[in-house]
């Protein structure tokens, strides 16, 4: 170890290992590289001379940032674990001060120094260091110092200093105003916080660092100023919140509640009530109304409860106390009673043209005639016909009825008269007003006045206009309103003369606004007055006006009345009417008319004409009604001409009906022939019908035929029936198998087409088809290949060789045949008769049959 003195006369001891580094420094005293190498060596050996060497280096190189930075870090690290009152702290502070003489433009040195001073809790010295750093550094580096400065201020309760520093900071970073506001609120400086918050709310370009919208900031301001009225003196709370009411129309409820809460907390209860009343009279949404009303009701309830508690504590209440208590109770009850009416007012403010809400408002004023009149008056003056939601005329009618119910008929007439001059959007609304007016006159036995009103309503305008021309007023188009004319006709029919009533009906027809019901009513009216031909002419006018199917009711009424009137005396005229009616009659309505026509011919005409009508009816009605029509036709033919005459009808029915109805008709035909003793004809009918009877589905038909053969046939006819049954079943099986084969063929072709791109399609098929059954069984994937029918000869125990197919589908036809043949031996009589072959075409009725 050696001892050496520096230039200041300070001595220090160094080891022999330090000697090379010392020699290098002597040769290069201004090289940072050699000094750093020496310092690193001392760090590795943990030498006590480290600080001395740093000081020597900085004396030679005072402008080296690297040396100063590493030295200061080393000195701060040496303070770890020491108390802040340790003298070493002052030495480090002195080192920082010496460093800043040369490093005053280096923000990192200032930041470390400020952090060190903050840890030592020297408030004034630390503040001065921060201020010096801000003065020394360029403004572009201030953003690195200010967070440390703000953190230091929040750490200590130096409110006035912090506020002044924050104000300086906001000049550099106004976007951090929220942090300043939060600090002010935390320290209880609510007035300044509210002022600052109001400033940033009014800045349209302010962007919150916390992601808050301007609306959220406004709500925070309202909460702050409304809940702390005694601490905020610099702001006009009422003006601020009312400005928010104009600005944020979607938050009216919370803003009104904030304003009322401000006055409540200020002790101005009457002013708060005025605010609540103003709010519920101005809000226009149900949500805002609900929020304000609930707050208002809670305020009144708390006020009442507080007053009751005070009264309970006072053993000797005065008369004024009792009056005050009753007043508050009355206020609360009055508020709750007005809720529905206030809610209705909100809905009407939303849409003053809502007719239904006006009606509800009138109901809420039940028992208050003056309020009802005022409400109706306001309603009819407010609602515009073009914007009305609902039927405007109902308001006028209800208004007039209110006067009528109170015995003020003259006032009701005035209301109706004004209602007839309103520019409604639909003619039907105006017509309803006239009809209601006339009904009111009828209720008070003023029939003549009602007729005058209807006459006035139906008067032709000065010029002719189209009913659907919306450019014209409804008053000009009213003369074509069927509603008014219908009531006019009813009134004339009840209170007028025959001549005037007939003129009204004729006018309706001339205007071409009549309906089938009007025509029928006109005819019935004429008939009641014994003007039958006039009634028939009215029906004919109606027939000329309408087409099918609307004209059906008129035709039905006309024909029924005509038949009842003349009872077949004017047969030719009646036939002409029926022919005219049926000329364009749709199948849907033909059945009833044809039956009526046929009944006429049966009772008053010729039988052959009746049969002709029935025959026409079978082809004129709907397909689903033909079966029923044929049954009626057959029954009538049998009654008039006898049963043999029905053969032609049965044959035609079998030709045109669907399969299900054809089978039923064939069974009836065969039964009829059997009853007539025509067994061969019945058998031929069964044979013809069998072609559409699948034995698996229509077993009933084959059972009926079998029972027929048992009763009337022999062994040969029974065998023929079984042969036909097998052939029909085979036919249906063939159809099913053909469909299956086609589907399989399509699937096979599809698979071949898919594999055509990879190889020869025919070769693939050949590979799938086995040459013999034995080879096929040995091939892999045999279950998926095409199979041939195998034939096996069984000779054991049988005299003849019989080929059986094990893959054959058993349909039990042979078993059925054997069973049925056994039944033949039991049921068929002993004598056998030969039956000549028949075809269904031979069943045509011959001349001799017709004579019979």
UniProtKB/TrEMBL annotation:
Residue spans of biased composition, Acidic residues class: 807-828
Keywords on record: mRNA processing, mRNA splicing, Nucleus, Repeat, Spliceosome
Stretches assigned to the Pre-mRNA-splicing factor Syf1-like N-terminal HAT-repeats domain: 17-175
InterPro entries per record: HAT, HAT_Syf1-like_N, HAT_Syf1_central, HAT_Syf1_CNRKL1_C, Syf1-like, TPR-like_helical_dom_sf
Protein name: Pre-mRNA-splicing factor SYF1
Region (Disordered): 793-852
SUPFAM superfamilies (alphabetical): TPR-like (SSF48452)
